[in-house]
Amino acid sequence: MAAPGKILDTYFKISERGSTISTEIRGGVVTFVAMAYIVVLNPLILGSFSAEDAAAKTDVLGNILPVNQVAAVTALVAGLMSIVFGVVANYPFAIAAGLGINSLLAVTIAPQVTWPEAMGLVVIDGVIIVLLALTGFRTAVFNAIPSALKSAIAAGIGMFIAFIGLVDAGFVRRIPDAAGTTVPVGLGINGSIASWPTVVFIFGVLLMGVLVVRKVRGGLLIGIVVTTILAAIIEAVADVGPSLGTNPKGWNLSIPAIPDMLGGMPDLSLVGDVSIFGAFTRIGVLAASLLVFTLVLANFFDAMGTMTGLGKEAGLTDKDGNLPNVGRALVVEGAGAIVGGGASASSNTVFVESASGIAEGARTGLANVVTGLLFLVAMFLTPLYSVVPIEAAAPALVVVGALMIGQVRDIDFTKFSVALPAFLTMIVMPFTYSIANGIGVGFISWVVLHAASGGIKKIHPLLWIVAALFVAYFTVGPITDALT
C-alpha cells in the first residue's frame, strides 16, 4: 500500500474494521446519491421561488427564503459537517438538514417569528445539545437504553427508511380525506401502478435485490446508476415531466435529464443571517423556551436513535449495543444544529440514508469525507446532482430497510414487557415519520410495563427522566395553550 494509503488506513482504522479504501469511497458515493435529494427538498420545505408562490413559507413579517440560496447553504453545511464528523468521530454517518426540524421551522416556528429569529432558536438548540454531550449526559442516556430497545430502534429505522422510499417513489400514496375512506394510504394511483416513475422504482428494487443476493460488489451503486439510465431513457421517450402537485404520474422531485446549465457560483448570502435572541423578544421568553424544548428533544433523540441503528447495522457496537467513543460523535452531531442554524439551512443531523453506504461496506469516517466532498462539489454543479431522480435512489432505501429489519432477531418477544415497547418503537417511526416519536413511545411504554410487572428496580434512573420528558414533549401543544 502506498504511503498516502497507509496514512488513511491508519487514521481511519480501515483495515481494522474489515474494510478497504475503495469500499469506503464506494460507500461514500452511494450515501451521497441516496441523500442528495435533500439539496432539492430542503429548499422546497424552507424556501420559495417568490412571494406570490401559493406555497411560500413566509415568516411573521411575510419574508421568504429564496430557493437557490437555501439549496446552496444546504449543500455547504451538509458537506462541511459530514467531513468533520468523519474526521473527528470516524463513523460512516453522513450529516444533512433534518427533515423533521425543517418542517417544524416552516410550519410552526417561522409564522410566529422572522426567519433569522427562527434560525437563532436552532442555534440555541444546538448549543444545548453540545453542552449535554460535553457533560456526558447525552452519552449516559445513550448507554442507558436497554439492548432490546436499541435493536428495536435499528429495526424501526429500517422500516422507516423503507417507508420513505415507498412514499417518495409513489408506490405508496396518501388517499385524500375527502374520499371518506378509513384507509390513509393506498397502492400507486387508484390501486394500480399507473406511472412510469413508479415502474422505474420497482425495477430498481428488484435489480438491487438481485445484485445483493448475488453479492455483487457495489450492487447498490450499480443499481442506482442503471435505474437512473432507464429513467432518463423513459423521460426522453415518454416526456413524463415533474409532478408539481398537478401531475401525479410525474417525477416526484428531479427529472432524469441533463440540465441546460450545469453550474455556477453558489449564493451563500444566507450564511450568518441569524438573530440568536430575537425570538425571545418577539414572542416572549416562555413561548420561545417551549419552542427550544421541542427542538432539543427532537434533535436529541432523532440523532441518538439514528446512530444506534446505523452503528448496529455496521457492526460497530459492542455486546450491549453501545458505540465506542460515542461522546465525540454526539458533540459533532450537536454542532450540526449550530452550523445549520447559523447558515439558515436548518438543524443538521445524522441521516438514516447513510445505511445505504453501510450496506455497500462503509465502516469508517473516510466514507463520510467522500460524501461531504460530493456535497461541496454539488454547490457548484447545481442542478447536476438532480439528474438522479428520487425514484432511482429510493430502491436502495427499501433494500437497506430489509437488511436492517433483521435486528428484530435480538429482541425477546416471549416477554411482553419487552415485546410491546419494541413493537411500538418500530411501528411508530414510519407511521409518524419520526424517529424521535418512536423512541419516545418505546421509552414510556418500557418504563410503565416494567414498573407494573415488578421490574421497577431494573429500570435505569435516566429512563424515568427521559420518559417524563417525552410525556411533556407529546403534550407540548396543550401545555403551550394552557400557559398562553
Automatic annotation (TrEMBL):
<feature type="transmembrane region" description="Helical">
    <location>
        <begin position="119"/>
        <end position="141"/>
    </location>
</feature>
<feature type="transmembrane region" description="Helical">
    <location>
        <begin position="220"/>
        <end position="238"/>
    </location>
</feature>
<dbReference type="Pfam" id="PF00860">
    <property type="entry name" value="Xan_ur_permease"/>
</dbReference>
<keyword id="KW-1133">Transmembrane helix</keyword>
<feature type="transmembrane region" description="Helical">
    <location>
        <begin position="193"/>
        <end position="213"/>
    </location>
</feature>
<feature type="transmembrane region" description="Helical">
    <location>
        <begin position="153"/>
        <end position="173"/>
    </location>
</feature>
<comment type="similarity">
    <text>Belongs to the nucleobase:cation symporter-2 (NCS2) (TC 2.A.40) family. Azg-like subfamily.</text>
</comment>
<feature type="transmembrane region" description="Helical">
    <location>
        <begin position="274"/>
        <end position="298"/>
    </location>
</feature>
<feature type="transmembrane region" description="Helical">
    <location>
        <begin position="420"/>
        <end position="449"/>
    </location>
</feature>
<keyword id="KW-0812">Transmembrane</keyword>
<dbReference type="InterPro" id="IPR006043">
    <property type="entry name" value="NCS2"/>
</dbReference>
<protein>
    <submittedName>
        <fullName>NCS2 family permease</fullName>
    </submittedName>
</protein>
<keyword id="KW-0472">Membrane</keyword>
<dbReference type="InterPro" id="IPR045018">
    <property type="entry name" value="Azg-like"/>
</dbReference>
<feature type="transmembrane region" description="Helical">
    <location>
        <begin position="27"/>
        <end position="49"/>
    </location>
</feature>
<feature type="transmembrane region" description="Helical">
    <location>
        <begin position="461"/>
        <end position="483"/>
    </location>
</feature>
<feature type="transmembrane region" description="Helical">
    <location>
        <begin position="69"/>
        <end position="88"/>
    </location>
</feature>
<feature type="transmembrane region" description="Helical">
    <location>
        <begin position="93"/>
        <end position="113"/>
    </location>
</feature>
<keyword id="KW-0813">Transport</keyword>
<feature type="transmembrane region" description="Helical">
    <location>
        <begin position="366"/>
        <end position="386"/>
    </location>
</feature>
